[in-house]
Amino acid sequence: MELQAVLMAAGGGSRMTDLTYNTPKPMLPVGNKPLMWYPLNLLERVGFEEVIVITTKEVQKMMTTDFKMKLDVKMKLDVVWIQEDGDMGTADALRHIQQKIKTDVLVVSCDLITDVALHEVVDLFRAHNATLAMLMSKAHEFTETVPGQKGKKKTAEQRDFVGVDQSGKRLLFMANEADLEDGLSVRKSIMRKHPRMHIKTGLVDAHLYCLKKAVVDFLTENKSISSIRGELVPYLVRKQFSKTTNSQKIKDDAEDQTQRKNDSSTNHELLISSPDEPLLQLAQERSCWNDHRGDMSEAYHGGKLRCYVHIMDQGLCCRVNTLAAYIEANRLAQKLFEEPAVHTSAVISERCQMGLDSIIGAHCQVADKTSIKRSTIGNSTTVKEKVKVTNSIIMHGVTIEEGCNIQGSVICSNAVIGRGADLKYCLVGNGQRIEPEAERTNEVIVGTDQLMEI
Amino acid sequence: MADSGVTDGPERKEDIQRVKNEGKELTKEEKQRLRKEKKQQKKNKEKKDDKASQESEKGKKPAVSTAAASQTPTQSTTPKAPSEVPAPAPVPVPAPEAPSPADKPAKSKGELKAERRARQEADRASKHGKKGDAAQQPVTIKSKTPPSDLQPVVKRLPEHIQVDNPDVLKKLAKKLERQQIPLRSDYGYKVSLFSHLHQYSRKAPLTQQVSIPSTVIHPAIVRLGLQYSQGIVAGSNARSVALLHAFKQVIRDYTTPPNEELSRDLVNKLKPYISFLNQCRPLSASMGNAIKYIKKEISNISSQCKEEEAKSKLQICIDCYINEKIILAAKAIAKSSIEKISDGDVILVYGCSSLVNHILCEAFEKSRKFRVIVVDSRPRLEGREALRRLVQKGISCTYVLISAVSYILPEVSKVFLGAHALLANGYVMSRVGTSQIALVAKAFNVPVLVCCETYKFCERVQTDSFVSNELDDPDDLIVTRKGKTQLEDWQQVPSLGLLNLVYDVTPPDFVDLVITDLGMIPCTSVPVVLRVKNVDQ
């Protein structure tokens, strides 16, 4: 078997707590499908037959009841649940399932919505015998107004500095702004080998990684690494250029030996060579190919550890980990599947004006004289007469009484909007009731149990 | 001529004649019927004795003389028509020999095959509806002389040089579908002279159509195919070594299914992999020979052998093959070549041949004083890699492009060329541009030495670079200079075709010596080596 897929669905959605306090992030509806359906669909389309899903017990329960997951996902899902306390990072989770991992892994996060041609990433992994291959995408500005955001203040996202070589495929440098307090310093060895490096900051990490099996084994030895994105990837990128991985003629100096032993023991795991290593070497020697030119070194500069990145510039790649991203994803999600926008079981009266880019879920009831534009309506929602819904996301089981006007808002499941309410850019939490004739603009309406105790 | 011409029984001739006279195409049922009849006839004939055959011989002699005159091999599709005994065409004989009893004694398998082939020929001829003159239809039937003297005449053209024939393409598509290998589609406008060859784009790898955890094709083979199509593994030796390495992994992961024999099942498992690799990049001659060797080794595994034993045996075989044919051969060739390199020599090399680089490095280590001129050509610019390897060793080098070769040749004392394959008629198939170098060197009276291991010797015969070649991605020819890419929209320009040839053939007149691991031989001795090799095997 070539690759095993692992879906990380235990994340808490810490940056969108308003949405996730009742529904765990993997089950948030996007375009009326649970969020984790999208990466699963991607894997299924490409040809995977089995996926290991790491998630919490709650999500596991919800998965079994959600018929959409059962019907649509034909792959075999091996669900592993872990404690919800949130201390487990993604690398810890990988370590947890180390027994199940028999070959190289493809790690996907549950909040990734993309239509990338996955073979581009995997081809880099295969062709160059890489240790790590990942997917990144050019970030797009979010144009929709986010409910609850006062003004146009952009949240200060920590930027990522990604350095790639001239071809744009080899990953040379990766650091987060938070770690670069003194400024960006680049090792001389990197500059000597790759004199031209492009440093990009406007990239979104899709959190899709192809890792060699040796890396998983390495993780079991090094328990200090707990996050793939935060620690493992920068470590691997740095290790490409460390001295011990590159020295071909390892001179046995006595004083260096102990230090080298420590280093090489860590490197040994990462560089597990196949039993036919001399043959591979011979083939590489005889091949008249080099990945760079201009200096005297052989292909890959003789380095055995290689990290590659595929940067998408066209196409959809969205990580749903903030409210803005969630709204954006709802807009774009419809492009990803060919199901009809209006579910067959929805009851829509004829005098309803529905825009083409709206999605209506199953068992909905939409009464007369309503106008639904650019919105997503969840399952089992009731929309009474004379309601105007524009640019909004309505989740499941919501009741909207007559004469409401909802614009640019997010209404979570089982909420009730009283008649004549006027909501602009609001976020209504789970199970909330909006009193009739209410007028709210740019507010987050959640229950008292959500508010922090001071 | 046809003295020994015991031909097919007259019954066959009757059939063929009937078909020709009727001048219509044989339908499938008719063909089946024909086949059944022939089988029955054969059974009958085998019971008859030789006496009848003698009679028929005498009877046929006059027929032979008349037939020979009127026979025109209009349908010989192969260039080589070795001593084929033209059998009496049945048709000129006005009356087919009175149904002389099935006078043929039991026929050898080769003759039966030949008969079948001849029958197919006839069918094809009738289909093409040659102007009713059946005399023109060559029925090439083999005589009864010992089969070792005869070569089967009708050789089918390999499919990879018949791309413009839609039937061949359909057959290929069907075959790939059966093996569950995706079909790679051609790209771009092909220059008309080369429209019979495949032309693929590097930006559309075959892995697009392969499921990601590839289950049908072993992952090592997928990786190899990808590396071939992207050019990461390039060069005849490297490709063969990488192929054998991948096969080792396949064999390691192989388990014999129940009720199957390893010797047969493993060969069948390898066939789709080879088709896949062929789709990624057409196989080279050296790879073909390596594959033949492996298949032979696998088929020779006795059924008594346990699976583990068999697998380890195969691994050892592969290691031995690589060791003997590539590593040791390189050493032997280096040793012979060093005798040819004297101090003060100026050696010209072209492109990046792993063997030539090895030779030069060895010679340098043996403290020969020489300098090297590396000639390079677009679009591959492999000479840069050769340059790097030589300069790294400390050899003083000069670098020119192939357009300057006639300028630089007066300085050169010897030319060393690598080969992709050596063909059976002495022609050298190598990177495009090699024949030019050899030609110019000949004009300047500079000796040209070709270095080639024996495992690259190929039984094909070619006299030009058109019939069989490889077309690389035409987009490689596009350059961007000063921000402008002139050929960016070449596909929109009507009647503009970009041609990126990979190989060309050098005639043996331009090559002075071939240095192989068997010694230094003239170019014309290649068929001898091939014959000796075949006898060995």
Description:
The complex is a heterodimer of chains A (454) and B (537). Chain A has 454 residues and is an alpha/beta fold. Chain B is α/β, with parallel strands linked by helices and 537 residues long. In chain B, strands 3-2-1-4-7-9-10 form a seven-stranded mixed beta sheet, sandwiched between helices. In chain B, strands 5-6-8 form a three-stranded antiparallel beta sheet, with helices on one face. In chain B, β1 (345-350), α11 and β2 form a beta-alpha-beta unit. Chain A binds chain B through residues 1-5, 46-49, 106, 117-119, 122-123, 126-129, 274, 276, 279-280, 282-290, 293, 296, and chain B through 205, 207-208, 210-215, 219, 222-223, 226-227, 230-235, 237-239, 241-242, 244-245, 248-249, 322, 326-327, 351-352, 354, 382, 384-386, 388, 391-392.
Could you give a short description of this structure?
The complex is a heterodimer of chains A (about 450) and B (about 525). Chain A is of the alpha/beta class and about 450 residues long.
What is this structure's SSE topology?
The complex is a heterodimer of chains A (454) and B (537).
Chain A: E1 3-9, H1 17-20, E2 29-30, E3 33-34, H2 37-46, E4 50-56, H3 57-65, H4 67-72, E5 76-82, H5 90-96, E6 104-109, E7 112-114, H6 118-127, E8 132-138, E9 160-164, E10 171-176, H7 188-193, E11 198-200, E12 203-211, H8 213-221, H9 228-239, H10 243-246, H11 254-270, H12 277-286, E13 307-312, E14 317-319, H13 323-332, E15 347-348, E16 353-354, E17 359-360, E18 365-366, E19 371-373, E20 376-377, E21 382-383, E22 388-390, E23 393-394, E24 399-400, E25 405-407, E26 410-411, E27 416-417, E28 422-424, E29 427-428, E30 433-434, E31 439-441, E32 444-445
Parallel strand pairs in A: 1-4, 1-6, 4-5, 8-13, 15-18, 16-19, 17-20, 18-21, 19-22, 20-23, 21-24, 22-25, 23-26, 24-27, 25-28, 26-29, 27-30, 28-31, 29-32
Antiparallel strand pairs in A: 2-3, 6-12, 7-14, 8-12, 9-10, 9-11
Chain B: H1 10-22, H2 28-47, H3 50-70, H4 109-128, H5 166-179, H6 219-230, H7 236-252, H8 262-280, H9 285-299, H10 307-340, E1 345-350, H11 354-365, E2 370-376, H12 383-393, E3 397-401, H13 405-408, E4 414-418, E5 421-422, E6 428-431, H14 434-443, E7 448-451, E8 503-506, E9 513-516, E10 519-521, H15 526-536
Parallel strand pairs in B: 1-2, 1-4, 2-3, 4-7, 7-9
Antiparallel strand pairs in B: 5-6, 6-8, 9-10
Helix pairs in contact in B: 6-7, 6-8, 7-9, 7-10, 9-10, 10-11, 11-12
